[in-house]
Design brief:
Elements: H1 18-23, E1 30-34, H2 38-45, E2 48-53, E3 58-62, E4 66-70, E5 76-81, E6 87-92, E7 98-103, E8 107-112, E9 118-122, E10 129-132, E11 143-147, E12 150-156, E13 162-169, E14 174-180, E15 183-188, E16 192-194, E17 207-214, E18 217-223, E19 225-227, E20 234-236, E21 240-246, E22 251-258, E23 273-277, E24 282-287, E25 290-296, H3 299-308, H4 312-321, H5 331-345, H6 348-359, H7 363-375, H8 379-382, H9 395-408, H10 410-419, H11 427-440, H12 445-457, H13 461-471, H14 476-483, H15 493-499, H16 501-510, H17 517-523, H18 528-541, H19 550-560, H20 565-571, H21 577-586, H22 590-599, H23 603-614, H24 617-627, H25 630-640, H26 644-653, H27 660-666, H28 676-716, E26 745-749, E27 754-756, H29 773-779, E28 785-790
Helix pairs in contact: 3-4, 4-5, 5-6, 9-10, 9-11, 10-12, 11-12, 12-13, 13-14, 15-16, 16-18, 18-19, 19-21, 20-22, 21-22, 22-23, 23-24, 23-25, 26-28
Keywords: Cytoplasmic vesicle, Endosome, Golgi apparatus, Lysosome, Metal-binding, Protein transport, Transport, Zinc, Zinc-finger
Membrane topology: Peripheral membrane protein
GO biological process, one term: protein targeting to vacuole
């Protein structure tokens, strides 16, 4: 508490020594305020000697024998001239309608504040204590006690006379008395007493000017004397108000505040009094020239302390938690103070991040803070946290930040363009700014890519596509698909193919309805290697779509992709064979030429080429097997007869297609043939295997035939149902007559067709057996009779 002797009014905050204030991080438990207004006027001319607190008012006694009734603000409501000397104590009953006053000249007065009831008594010694019965207003409770050298009880009798009785004496002056219900507690120089029963007893090592309860703790007003460092003389220090926690054998100090009251240098221990209001946790520190009110700190005070200690984060959290209870603070104000504190400390990123939570959807405040960041050159810090939807700030705000990045950080600028929706700012303004920078650095890929994105948002897809193609950017295909830009790429097919031929071809083939095959082939005319990639993939998808280009593809495969030439020749039905043969022969493509010759029917030339060009007997044999032509085998044998390796190959493979004897008889005597023995053994083994296979097949055939014959016989031996629903297949009338007595004859064949006997042809010498005329006509064979019915 700062020195305030000259101040008449104003608040009095809690005060400690300057060194303690700087070092202490403990939050005070109480806050302080000087009682002013009428009190200030009183103490300018008089000095306070005692005070009593009631729920409705305060009663202040002075050294000049006056008693003042005050409201809680310190304004005077009533004044009583009780004595010319110091008032020692004032006592009030619970109703606040009766007051007891004692003074230094031995006078005791008990009177009604709002009635004429009054009692006067003068003693021969100073009376320090007076206490009226808490229920003095009742006629049965007209009692009060006084304390000097004796503790006297006064009570009014039934005849309105007052009588006194001694409760205690002989142990020094009575210092304090408290009356609660039917119990009286008092303290003297030696001991504290309780009428009826003991409550507590304790000793202290320091001067106590007053005690008051605070929940389960005690508030203690202490009188302090200290030694001067230079003179080593004692002097009166500021009084202290401590909160202590009583323990079983000692106590713990919870808080301690040094109070700078007016005139504390001249005060003694007896000059201080601690009075409290039980219901409100208010504590009044009374000194001759000052009255200070101490009260428990509320959430607003807690926030004040946190802000004073620059603990803004905790203050903001406390305000959010207690927003319904705080009265003097607003969450937004605390938040703004926090942002300013972070900026002053240079923690710009944290300050910007906190803006999201603190500013919320308040667009004007957002814009104000952005300009504040601009003034300190920290627009980049706040850019990631700007609102992008609700609320939306003025376009100028976003443009200002984009310009800041454009001047110093191309990558950061590009990031913002990607992340921010394009409707936050004026797109044309930013496009022009980027183009101006590209004039200085035309090949900057970051700027070019960003410009393409801006063009895309502005629906200027042509310019965007051109930039993407120049940069060979992977998003070019996505851009084309997303915005259906196929009409814009008809003259850019080569660029697309150069960038990524696989993706380009897939895209073109997937969208043939938008860019025709003819158009693509024409655009790629000067780039045959790309033309081949496109046509090859087209052919893989559909062998017939690009049939008009199959002749062209022969040369393209031959030039750029020979491994796929032969598969192409095999799968294509539109390829001109003569042209293909000409190209393959020119390039000496033997395998392809062999295939074409065989396909054109010139198998003997093809076989000759295999033998003469490839010298590969296995391939020649394989070719002969495919053609399955006796003349080819003969040619192969003739060509191989003087070549032992070829003979070995033939002996190993010819057995299943040509009689090996034909080859063996032609082998010249004395010719050395590699692995001849093994080849002959293999021929014999193959022959034996063929015999075994034939015998096995024969057994299976005979068994199956017998089984089927038996099954057919069983089936034909079964009876056939003939009833009125059946008809004659010749005359189409019911097979059975309607007249049961009439004689009839029915013929049923194994095919289940039925005829009247008279409807069938009469057997002749050439055809003595009757057959089903229907089945005979269909199968060109007879159907045998299975049953004949007569009656």
């Amino acid at each position: 508490m700062a020195e305030a002797e000259e101040q008449d009014t104003g608040s009095l905050e809690e005060s400690t020594d300057e060194s303690e204030e700087e070092e202490s991080e403990e939050e005070p438990k109480l806050k302080y305020e000087r009682l002013s207004n009428g009190v200030t006027e009183i103490l300018q001319k008089d000095a306070a000697s005692c005070m009593t607190v009631h729920d409705k008012f305060l009663a202040l006694g002075t050294h000049y024998g006056k008693v003042f009734l005050l409201d809680v603000q310190g304004n005077i409501t009533q004044k009583f001239d009780v004595s010319p000397v110091k008032i020692n104590q004032i006592s009030l009953d619970e109703s606040g309608e009766h007051m007891g006053v004692c003074s230094e000249d031995g006078k005791v007065q008990v009177f009604g504040l709002y009635s004429g009831e009054e009692f006067h008594e003068t003693f021969d010694c100073p009376i320090k204590i007076v206490a009226v019965h808490p229920h003095f207003v009742r006629s049965s409770c007209k009692q009060f006690v006084t304390g000097g050298k004796k503790l006297l009880l006064f009570e009014r009798s039934w005849m309105n006379r007052w009588k006194s009785s001694v409760l205690h004496e002989g142990e020094g002056n009575i210092r304090s008395v408290k009356w609660r219900g039917h119990l009286i507690a008092w303290a003297n120089n030696m001991v504290q007493q309780l009428m009826s029963r003991a409550v507590s007893q304790f000793e202290t090592e320091f001067y106590i000017s007053g005690l008051a309860p605070l929940c389960d703790q005690l508030v203690v007003l202490s009188y302090v004397k200290e030694l001067a460092e230079k003179t080593e003389r004692e002097y009166c220090a500021r009084p202290r108000l401590d909160i202590i926690q009583p323990l079983s054998e000692t106590c713990e100090e919870i808080s301690s505040d040094a109070l700078t009251v007016r005139g504390f240098q001249e005060n003694e221990c007896r000059d201080y009094h601690l009075v409290y209001s039980e219901g409100e946790s208010l504590f009044y520190i009374v000194s001759p020239r000052d009255v200070v009110v101490a009260k428990e700190r509320d959430q607003d005070d807690h926030i004040d302390w946190l802000l004073e200690k620059k603990k803004y984060e905790e203050a903001l959290m406390a305000a959010e938690i207690s927003q319904r209870n705080i009265k003097r603070h607003k969450i937004l104000d605390i938040g703004l103070a926090y942002i300013n504190h972070l900026i002053e400390r240079g923690d710009y990123d944290t300050a910007a991040r906190k803006c999201q939570k603190i500013l919320g959807k308040n667009a004007p405040l957002w814009e104000y803070e952005v300009y504040k960041f601009k003034e300190i050159g920290q627009l980049k810090a706040i850019s990631p946290y700007l609102p992008r939807g609700d609320p939306v700030l003025k376009p100028l705000i976003y443009e200002m930040i984009l310009h800041e990045f454009l001047e110093s950080d191309y990558e950061g600028f590009a990031t913002l363009i990607r992340e921010w929706p394009g409707d936050l700012y004026n797109n044309s303004v930013i496009v022009q700014a980027v183009r101006d920078h590209l004039k200085k650095d035309s090949q900057n890929k970051t700027l070019l890519k960003t410009l393409a994105e801006l063009y895309t948002y502005d629906k200027n897809y042509g310019n965007a596509l051109e930039i993407y193609l120049t940069l060979r950017h992977k998003d070019v295909f996505q851009l084309i698909h997303k915005h259906n830009l196929f009409s814009s790429i008809k003259d850019k097919i080569v660029l697309l193919m150069d960038f990524d031929s696989e993706k380009a071809v897939d895209m073109l083939l997937d969208n043939e309805d938008k860019i025709s095959i003819k158009k693509v082939v024409e655009e790629l005319e000067d780039r045959p290697e790309l033309q081949h990639v496109y046509l090859h993939k087209l052919f893989k998808r559909d062998h017939h779509k690009g049939q008009r280009y199959h002749e062209k593809q022969i040369s393209l495969y031959a030039e750029y992709d020979r491994p796929n030439l032969l598969p192409f020749l095999r799968d294509s039905t539109h390829c001109p064979l003569e042209k293909a043969l000409e190209i393959c022969q020119q390039r000496n493509f033997v395998e392809e030429t062999v295939y074409l010759l065989s396909r054109m029917g010139n198998s003997r030339s093809a076989l000759k080429m295999i033998m003469e060009e490839l010298h590969n007997v296995d391939k020649a044999i394989e070719f002969a097997k495919e053609q399955d032509d006796a003349e080819l085998w003969e040619d192969l044998i003739l060509y191989s007869i003087d070549k032992p390796p070829f003979i070995t190959g033939l002996l190993n493979n010819i057995g299943t297609h040509v009689d090996p004897i034909l080859l063996i008889h032609r082998i010249k005597e004395g010719m050395e043939i590699p692995s001849l023995r093994d080849s002959l053994v293999k021929i014999l083994q193959d022959y034996n295997l063929q015999i075994l296979l034939r015998e096995g097949c024969k057994k299976i055939l005979v068994a199956d035939s017998l089984s089927l014959l038996k099954k057919m016989h069983r089936t034909q031996m079964k009876g056939v149902l003939v009833d009125e629903e059946n008809i004659c297949e010749s005359c189409l009338s019911p097979i059975l007559p309607t007249d049961a007595a009439r004689p009839f004859s029915v013929v049923v064949f194994h095919c289940r067709h039925m005829f009247h006997r008279e409807c069938l042809p009469v057997p002749t010498m050439n055809s003595p057996t009757q057959h089903c005329s229907i089945c005979s006509a269909k199968n060109h064979g007879p159907g045998g009779v299975v049953l004949e019915m007569k009656k």
